[in-house]
Amino acid sequence: MGIYLNPNNVLLQRARKSEIFIDKSMMIAELNKLVDTENNFLCISRPRRFGKSMMGNMISAYYSKGCDSRELFKDLKIAKTKDFETYLNKLNVISIDLNAFYRNVQDKNDLIKVVTEEIKAELSEAFPSVKILERDTLPFALQRVYAKTNETFVIIIDEYDVLVREQVGSKLFNAYLEFLNGLFKNSNLSPAISLAYLTGILPIVRDKIQSKLNLFTEYSMTDAGRLTEFVGFTAEETKGLCEQYGMDYEECKRWYDGYDMGDVKEIFSPRSVVSAMERKRFGSYWTQTGSYEALKLYILMNFKGMKDDVITMMGGGKVHVEVDSYLNTMTDFHGKDDVFTYLIHLGYLAYDRKEELCYIPNEEIRKQWVISIQYEQDYQPIIKLVEDSKQLLEATINKDEKAVANALTEAHIRTTNPLTYNNEASFQSAIGLAYFYANLKYTVIKELPTGKGYADLALIPYVPNIPAMIIELKNNKSAESAIRQIKEKEYDDLLEHYRGDLLFVGINYDSDTKEHQCKIEECVIE
Hints:
The chain has 21 helices and 15 strands. It is of the alpha/beta class and 526 residues long. It is elongated and about 90 Å long.
C-alpha cells in the first residue's frame, strides 16, 4: 500500500460516513466492461464540484490491491452485479492528483520529475524483484514491472487538465505533453495498462494534446454518452433526498436542475442539492465555490452577436451553439461559439445536444449571470429591466393593463436592436427578462404544451396567495385576440393540479409604432 501506488480506501470510507451519500457505484460496472479491451482509455470532464474526485476515489478503492473494500461496497448497487468480484481489489492502481502535485511542488518546472520519482520509489518498494533504473522514465519503469511480473495497472489522473488551464505553451506544458505521450501512446506499455481514467474540467485539448491522447474516448458535458447518469444527481436520486429531508422537489428542480444530457433529461448540480438538504433551505451553493469573475471575463468578450445571445438566454431562451469549433483551451477563443462551449464545460450553461442549443440551466446559475454583468455599462439597460421586473409582476397581479403595456414596450426596446425588434424570439426573450423577478415566486415555463398548441408563457406559483398566469403574445393583431387564443387552447389539462386564481394575459405589439397593448382577464379554478 502506498500513497500513489495501490492507495488505501480511506477517502471512500469518509464519503460513506457522510450524512449524504448517493450510490454511483454502477459507474464501476461500466468501467469493468472496458478493462483490458481496446476501449480502455477514458477522459471524463465535468464542472468543478460535480463529483469528479469522489468518483476517482471510488474507482481507486474498488480496483486497488492496497486495500480490502468488500465491506464498503457490499450494500452498493455494484455488489449485486455478476462481475462484482472480477476486479475487486485485484489490480494495481496508480492514482495521481495532478493539481495537488502542481500546488505543492516548489519549482513548477520540476513537476513531471517529482511525479515520476515519487511513483518510481513506490514501484521499487512494491516490486523488489524488478530492477528500476535511476534514469528510467515512468513508462520505462512500468514496462519493466510488467515484463518481469506480468502485473498490469489502472492509471487514474485527477485534474489532468490543470496545466492546460494554467500553463499552455510553457516549458512545463510541453514536458507534460511528452509525459502523456510516453504513458498513453506507447505500444510497448499499452499491454500493461488495464484501464486509464483521466478526469478534469475540460475535454482533451485539440491539436497538440489530442495527438497525444487520441486513443481516449471522451465523455463531456456536451456528450456524456453511456456515462450520463453519473454526471450529477438524477431526478430519482434528488426526489429521494427531498423526501428524506422534507424539501420541496419542484423548488429543488427550479434551483438546481436543467442539465439536459441526452438520454437523461434531468441532471442536478450535486454540490448544490447536498448543501440545500443539509441547510434546509434553497440558495446559491455551487456558485459560492468559485468567483463570478470567472464567468464575467467570458461574458464580456465582444464577439459578434454575443450580447444579443446573452440577453436571449438571460430571458429564458436558448441559442444555437457549434460546440465542435472550440479547441478546449483557455487561450483560443475565436467567436461566441467557443465562449459558450467553454461555459458549458464549466457548468454555467447547459447544452441540448439534439437541438444544438445552449441555455442557462437553473435559478442558481441565472443569479450568477446577473451578478456578473450588474456593473458593466453595456448591460445596464438589462440590469435596469431586471430591477424593474418586480414592479411589472405587481402590475400584472393587480391587473393594471396600462402599466404592463408600458413596461413591456420599454423592455422590448431595451433588449432588442432595430434589426431584431420584430423577431418573435427576441420579443419572447424581452418578456422573459421583464418577468425576471417572477422566478422568485413562480415556475416560469416557455411554450408550455396545452390541449391545442402551446402557451407562450406560463407562470405557475409555488408560493401561496398569488394567481397563476397564462401569457399569450401577438404581433400586429390585438390583445383581445391573444385572450381568445388562450381560451381556445384548452388550458384545463395544463393546470389540472392547480386550484386558485388564474390570469389570462394577452399582449400585442405593433411593429410600426413599437407600442404594446395588454388585456388581462381573471378566472378561478376550483
